[in-house]
Structures are given as structure tokens and as C-alpha cells.
Amino acid sequence: MAQWETVIGLEIHTQLSTQSKIFSGASTAYGAEPNTQACAVDLGLPGVLPVLNEDAVHKAVIFGMAIEAHIAPYSVFARKNYFYPDLPKGYQISQMDLPIVGIGYLDIEVEGEIKRVGITRAHLEEDAGKSLHESFHGLSGIDLNRAGTPLLEIVSEPDLRSAKEAVAYMRTLHELVRYLGICDGNMQEGSFRCDANVSVRPKGQQEFGTRAEIKNINSFKFVEKAINHEIERQIALIENGGTVVQETRLYDSVKDETRSMRSKEEANDYRYFPDPDLLPVHISEEFKAKIKAELPELPQAKKQRFKTDYTLDDENASILTSSIALANYFEAVVKLSRCEAKLCANWITGDLSAALNKANLDINDSPVSVERLAGLLARLADNTISGKIAKQVFEELWQGIATADEIIEAKGLKQITDTGAIEAIIDGIIAANEKQVEQYRSGNEKVFAFFVGQVMKAMQGKANPAEVNKILKAKLS
Ligand code: ADP
Ligand code: MG
């Protein structure tokens, strides 16, 4: 049996987070009543003219700069003609021969290895409306609110070799566009969706196999599943003597399978031609220089810096740089608390992240502010409270009412470091547990934990653990 190799190229539609549409002044806000955000331009009424939204161009160039792509000094909008009810003009305005962003690349990390994935191009286009098939009793409803929403379609080279690599690429790109502030990344609302082109070939063969394109997948999980399914389908087909035909397929997440939508023979002839209503877009060197100067620190650079400057391990550095908001939160806590970065990182990726996840909250909506977490960690670092008590204080902090110092004060949680007080308790416990003392002295070291437990219980967890260990060791030996 032949060994198969998979080849994948992704086309990702990124919704640019502009206030208004790409060629009209209508709002792009999500979730409005159907057809309340579609103006005459979006409806394609006769006599209207599109006006290009500068912010969409700006955001496309930001992206191009971030992937070190060639930015076209001159790019052109074209009409892509096809008929579909949710496309009232009868054509979509897109870019064909001269896209705004040319060849660039994205580095992805798969199982600890860095792989460079080529990006062929990224072009600006308008989104279509939506057909609604539910609740219209055999009819279809059309909602044109989404018509004219700006999209940047990012096309990769066929450089990906597995579903895992495809997902890593998609995640890295998703993180990047959010860092750049050009897309909100909301996949449920369709702000970031993917068409996956998949083919297989016998290992060692130079030539690519025939590909199928799976349309409109809007989650990382589904991308992985859909691609793996498609790989299996193609291999089984070929091994049974069949041939893969070039076609568009749909992924059905309920049945977990892909099925044919249309073959190449039925494919549309889009009859692309330059849109006579729109001028070519000129990008000057000054414009590019200005955007380059404004680019934020990119995810991979930030992760590297976190590893070197804060000596974080790879996992913490990855988690903390997964969004700018989380990274900023971390850096602010380190600065304010003056604690070791590792302690801050562990609390943020541990207790805080767990609590946020549980409450389904974003770091921006954390009930524990930077100041309050820093206040707690400072008390932990200067030994005012123990690690165990810190967890208790954190739970109180989560209520969002008081600072760590106020909680520690009000609840009397201050750690007892007064050796006299600790000694007195220990003496009492030793006197009351002769049997255990005997066991310990005859070599059963495990009993030591019993004594620590007893002391902590007697002192309500507030005794300084290091102090307790030291005194117990001395008195028991
Ligand atoms: P189209 O114009 O039909 O959309 P493109 O040549 O622009 O086709 O390619 C679209 C996507 O398909 C790109 O991401 C590209 O990398 C990918 N691709 C092209 N050929 C193959 C192949 N044989 N197997 C897998 N992916 C492919
Ligand atoms: Mg395509």
C-alpha cells in the first residue's frame, strides 16, 4: 500500500473591524434586526456608487507589514460576477490580478518545531448577505446586514502537511490579527472563517494531487476534523481505484462528514473585470513607513522576550502572550507587585485563569484588578501570608469588594512568625501526642507531616510554615 502525503492550503476570510462597511457608511455592528444595516449601496440599488473605506485599506496594510509581505503600490478592485440571492448587485467587489498584499509568510510552531508557511496573497473584498432558511415555511429569508462588510481574504501556499499543521497555522493567524487589532476574531459570529483545500499524493511524488475545497469552516476543532475526514475519503477513493475530482465540499459537523456541493464542471465563470466605479488604490512609501512605525510587538517576539526577560518557561510564555490584554496584565502585575515574575505568571495562568474560565470571563473583565492581584502577591512574597492563606484571600478578592490588605486585616489572616507563640503551641502538641513522638524518634519520618498538620490546625493555617518546620525539627530530635 502506498504511503500518502497530505497537502493543504487555507483561504481564511478575516472580517476587518471597521466601524462602517467597505464601500458604504452603513454600520458593521453584529446582531442588529435583519436588514436594518443595509443602505442603498449594500442593496445594490441603481445609480449608487461605492466609496472605499480608508480604514479597511489601513488594516490590510497593517496585516501585510506584519507578515513582511510585499505591499502593492497599486492595487485594483474587480467585479466577481455570480448570482446568489444574498448578493443583490449580481457581483461581489473583490481583488483579482492586483491584490493589496502580496507574498509574505507566517511562522508556526508544531510539536516544538518552527515551520515557515508561505502566504500567497491577501486581498480586500466585500462580504455577502445571509440566506435564512429557518422559520419561513418553505421560503428563504434574506438578511443583508452583512453585505458589504470588509473582508481580508488571506491565501496560504500549499505548504501545510497535516490537519495539525493547518490548525496551528489558523491559530497563529487568529492570534496575529487580534494582536494587530484588525479583526475581533469572533468565530461564532463568523469574523474568522476558513476554506480548506486538501489533496493527497503518494509520498515522494513531486506533483500535487487533485484537491477538494471544503468551504466555510468556523472553528479550529471542525477544521481539524473536516480535513482528517477529507484525507481519509480521498485515500480510500484512490485505493479503491477511483480518482479525486476537483470540487467544492461542505463539512457537516453533525454527521462529521464532508459532502459534495459543486464540481469544477459546474463551477461558476466569474468573468472578473476591473470595477469601473472604483479608482485603483495607491499606497505610498510614507504611508507604509507610518504603519510600520505603529506596528505593535508581534506575538512571537513578545513570547521570546517573556522567556528571556522574565525567565518564563515555554508554556507560561505561550499562555501569557496569547493575547495582548493578558500579556499587559501580567507585565503590570510584575511591575506593581515587585514580585518574582515566575510567581506572578503562576498565579495568572493558574488561579486567575481558572477562575476566569469558570466564570466565562475575559481578562479585560476580571473582577480582580491588576492592583489587587499585585497587592496579594506582595503579601505572599514578604511572608505576611502563606501560600494556603493566599488562595483563601484570592477567593475573597474575586468578590471585588476589598483589597488583599483589607481582607488580611479584617479576617486576621496575618501569618504568625512570632517564634514564641509557635513554640508554645508545638510544646503542647508534643506533650499530647507521646505515641507519635515515639514513632518519629524511632525513625518513622512520615509522622513529621502529622505534627505539621496539627500545628497548622491549631494556628488556623496562619503559622509561617518554614518556622514551624524548623522548630518542630529541633524539638522532636
Ligand atoms: P482558486 O483560485 O481556485 O481558489 P488557488 O490556486 O488560488 O485556487 O488556490 C487556492 C488555495 O488552494 C491556496 O491556498 C492554495 O495553496 C491551495 N492549493 C492549490 N493547489 C492545491 C493542492 N493540489 N492541494 C492542496 N491545496 C492546494
Ligand atoms: Mg479560492
Can you walk me through this structure?
- There is one protein chain.
- With 477 residues, the protein is an alpha+beta fold.
- Helix content is 40%, strand content 19%.
- It is built from 16 helices and 15 strands.
- Strands 5-6-9-1-10-11-12-13 form an 8-stranded mixed beta sheet. Strands 4-3-14 form a 3-stranded antiparallel beta sheet, with no helix packed on it.
- α3 runs antiparallel to α4, α7 crosses α9 (341-358) and α13 packs across α16.
- The mean pLDDT is 94.
- The structure holds adenosine-5'-diphosphate and magnesium ion.
What is this entry, summarized?
With 477 residues, the protein is of the alpha+beta class.
Counting H and I runs of at least 4 residues, what is the number of helices? 16
The total count of strands amounts to 15
Strand order within the widest beta sheet = 5-6-9-1-10-11-12-13
Distance between the termini: 71 Å
**SS content category:** alpha+beta
Topology:
Elements: E1 4-15, H1 40-43, H2 54-66, E2 74-75, E3 78-81, E4 91-94, E5 104-110, E6 113-126, E7 130-132, E8 141-143, E9 150-156, H3 163-179, E10 192-202, E11 212-217, H4 220-239, E12 247-252, E13 257-263, E14 273-274, E15 281-282, H5 285-294, H6 299-309, H7 314-320, H8 324-337, H9 341-358, H10 370-381, H11 387-397, H12 404-411, H13 419-432, H14 434-441, H15 447-458, H16 465-476
Parallel strand pairs: 11-12
Antiparallel strand pairs: 1-9, 1-10, 2-15, 3-4, 3-14, 5-6, 6-9, 7-8, 10-11, 12-13
Helix pairs in contact: 3-4, 6-7, 7-9, 8-10, 10-11, 13-15, 13-16, 15-16
